[in-house]
From TrEMBL:
Keywords: FAD, Flavoprotein, Monooxygenase, Oxidoreductase. InterPro entries: FAD-bd, FAD/NAD-bd_sf, HB_mOase, RIFMO-like. Residues 5-345 form the FAD-binding domain. Pfam families: FAD_binding_3. Its EC number is 1.14.13.2. The keyword Chloroplast does not apply. Gene3D superfamilies: D-Amino Acid Oxidase, subunit A, domain 2, FAD/NAD(P)-binding domain. This is 4-hydroxybenzoate 3-monooxygenase. GO terms for molecular function: 4-hydroxybenzoate 3-monooxygenase activity; FAD binding. GO terms for biological process: benzoate catabolic process. It comes from the Bacteria. It comes from Ahrensia marina. It is an enzyme of class 1 (oxidoreductase).
Amino acid sequence: MKKKKTQVCIIGSGPAGLLLSQLLHNEGISSIVIDRQSREHIEARVRAGVLEWGSVEALDEAGIGARMHKEGIPHAGFELAFNGDRHRIDIKGHTGKDVMIYGQTELTVDLIARRLEQAGEIVFSASDVVPLDVKSPSPKVRYCANGENYEIECDHIAGCDGFHGVSKSAIPDDVLKTFERVYPFGWLGLLVDKPPVSEELIYANHERGFALSSMRSKTRSRYYIQCSLNDKVEDWSDQRFWDEFSLRMGPQIAADLQTGDSFEKSIAPLRSFVAEPMRYGNLYLAGDAAHIVPPTGAKGLNLAIADVRVLSRAFVEHYKRNNDAYLDRYSEICLKRVWKVERFSWFMSMMLHHFPNMSAFEKRMQRAEFDHIVGSETASRSVAENYVGLPLEI
Ligand code: FAD
Ligand code: DHB
């Protein structure tokens, strides 16, 4: 078994693990990142597309915002639509801030490139990754790469390995509490190299189901429709997708829709999930390893970024000022925000989707939520504040 040593061993090289590694490097704290997937696989994954302004600032502070500012598109608002009626949420007017359209895929490419430029160590395609002795002062992570077994001795382990990772399972069952809601539908998303149908995002509730118009650039659109969990990507030809998307967006938007051949199409399930606590001994969970939100509020990536901002600050206090107060409060600080973001993502999901066996009362409630937002500046401001990102209270 080959041995290595570092201060923080990071399991998972998604946005949470990579950004944490960068923030620690900037403060002179060493880390090694380990992922079970290859670099090519990680850099090709298509996921989120909207950054809160606080996330934009965090990426700037980390020194990796240059391409995001060059290629990303600031958005000052987005639209809600309900059976053809439309209402714009003026994010900038209500909060003074924008959100930034910049794909998670691009952000991940930027982070990996920067870590490797700076001789940061990322182990790709590792197998049998296991966190060990997480309660002891010298926890370890074992893994296998290129046919060799390795053991990394460290002070702390950051579990940034997503919902299906191994880190959570190092927390004993009698300590870990989990909270979950699984939604009875998925999102079918596609990418197409055609200009977006509208300059801003449109979240639409239609009696046939939810639809979302988003984008990656002025020439690349990302569109989603709610689908059945039994559906397979192969069931949805591009033509079937365009027909359904047009119906749900309504004739006004459909008239401007430029269709074409998609070059990516995938189905994602929707889930709300929280694991408590987010710290156990010297193991800290961050991002999707600790919580999942349904994508309707565009919050998953942003929550992951918020967690590692808190965690990196806590490590800096630990290593530079011998102060463990932030590490001790890591779980408490993060969970307060996590639950508020879970609430918003749940609220948006409940308002905008068609649920199987919905009663007439529930349908009227959805419409009343929409009408309340349309008619109340306070309600619109609340949506804008949540969408642009709640303040990070460290
Ligand atoms: P991840 O990005 O999941 O990264 C975890 C990393 O850990 C991965 O690289 C994985 O390979 C690695 N890993 C897993 N297990 C192990 C192991 N045993 N050992 C070592 N490494 C391991 N959010 C939105 O806001 N909008 C969207 O449209 C959207 N779409 C999504 C679509 C899909 C299919 C998924 C899965 C998520 C989507 N999300 C979306 C959520 C958002 O992308 C996540 O919240 C975000 O990726 C969280 O970042 P993370 O770094 O915590 O986790
Ligand atoms: C995108 C995804 C979301 O979940 C969302 O709420 C907004 C945009 C996107 O992939 O572009």
